[in-house]
Amino acid sequence: MLEAQDIRVTRQGRNLLNGVSAVFAPGKVNVIIGPNGAGKSTLLSCLAGLMPTDHGAILLDSDNVAQMEPKLRGRRIGLLPQNGEVNWDVKVRDLVALGRFAHHDIASDADNQAAIISAMTATDCMPFAERTILRLSGGERARVLMARVLAGQPAWLLADEPLANLDPRYQLELLALLRRRAQGGIGVVAVLHDLTLAARNADHVLLMHEGGVFAAGVPDEVMTAANLNAVFGINSEILRDAAGRLVIVSN
Amino acid sequence: MKRKALLLTLLIAAFILSLSAGKTWIAPVNWFADNANGWIIAELRFPRAVLALAIGALLGLSGAVLQGYLRNPLADPTVIGVSSSAALGGVTAIYFGLSIWPYGIFICAMIGAGASVLLLAVMAARGNGVYSFILGGMVLSTLAGSLTAFLISIAANPYAMSEILSWLMGALTDRTVDDAVRAVPFMIIGGALLMTTGRTLDALILGEVGARSIGANIVRLRWIIIAGVGIGVGASVAVSGVVGFVGLIVPHIMRGIYGERPSAILIPSAIGGAILTLTADALVRLAPGAGEIRLGIVMAVLGAPFFFALLLRRGRESGDA
Fold first, then answer.
1. HSE toward the beta carbon, residue A162, CA cutoff 13 A
2. What's the whole-model pTM score?
3. Residue B20 to residue B7: CA distance in whole angstroms
4. Residues 218-247 of A with CB under 8 A from B
5. Which of A82, A196, B35, B267 could bond to A160 as cystine, CB 3.0-4.6 Å?
6. Is B204 close to A87, i.e. CB distance below 8 A?
7. Burial environment of residue A19 by CB neighbours within 10 A (0 to 12, 13 to 18, 19 or more)
8. Between helices B266-283 and B295-318, what is the axis angle to 10°?
9. Which residues of chain B make contact with A77, given a CB cutoff of 8 A?
10. Which of B271, B222, B274 is nearest to B243 (CA)?
11. Complex-level ipTM
12. Angle, nearest 10°, between helix axes B46-70 and B246-258?
């Protein structure tokens, strides 16, 4: 379990999070939605143990994330940051290998190599393993960054807007990948913007509004027209496709 | 491995050139002769060559580390004002008479260099982008230069003034064994600290958030760099004045050969910096006439166009110049 207990974060007099409590289960795709400024990314940073909280605690299987030794935390929680920053034009293989940073001292070279290969295979990155980052398309680059996180074999995978700047096909591929990982037992927590994709892919939805939790639960319960209209200030219609899955149309 | 062997061969060649070249050419067979030639080698050229090697290696390594840390290929101790801050520290020591104590200039130059890296690290942490950071470094460089000029202008006697000026311009002329013995240990300490940064610099490929998320200790990295650059660049400026752009030119060339992974270019940048400085310092002695061209001036003449070319190319690539 990854659990936020009454998290409050204040920065420069602004309440970014005012008392967020949430429980995320392993083996599920947990999705955080909400308008800009609702505190989604802040909450994800707190869950990753990268942002100090002013009140409350993040517990990972009853360990306090904020007090975890950084490398141990790095092994247990993998974070895919927003915007996919990559600073030097390094080889794909070298970038993915960064996912083993926290394992370097404790795992054998063979284990590290095996994890890197397996992560690149799962994300279909092997064909361009020797290419450098600037020579990849946007979709290939997103897969490489995902492979970097997977190479660390984390128990939790946190992703901040992983679908940004991807075309629909790659969006679906990435969501399928997250789904497979969750089925493999990893806990996935992703911040998503597309409501329909969120509704169709989430096992559990956390709807955030103004630094707090507006609603939480399965998509059918949380993503109602009333909730979405109240939080996003839109006029939305909830439809179902032939398979009974949600389609959200906003007017 | 072939490339490393080539680099080391070039380094040895540059070292031999540095010992041999000058107004008097001295072939290796005469290096240990019991005459004036042997004395020139032992007392003048050997300490000078050792200093050139150490300074070049330290500056090349500092450039590679600073660039990796700031994720910016334009960072270099001179460009971002670290060298001029060290120089300000050194001049302050001379002005207040601390240079009477052998280590006075060293300590003050190191404090100047360390403080400027600290200031720049705080600016980088605020994250105002690459160009504002470079601009900040240039303002710092100008400010340190102005304060240095101010100290020179109020210097008590013209002799002190000319001493300061000639030191500032950067040169290895007439450095003695004592100078080498004093400076080199600091540069080894600084260099050793900087050599430990490779893996964390690699983690910063993912940006600061990404690096922290995989367990990299960015705060410790910052203090290691402040100490390493402060001690190393401070000592190099204390002994040779401002020798610029080694840390800009060399890592850039090494990236072309070894790829852009920060840890992969640390040792090559140190070796390359030593080759460049040894060679340049040998060439300045071959200037026609009685005197030498100052090493600092030669490096600036080489480095400034290089910097502009890099700036233009980066501007074109990112479209935000």
1. 31
2. 0.90
3. 20
4. none
5. A82
6. yes
7. middle
8. 140
9. 213
10. B274
11. 0.92
12. 70
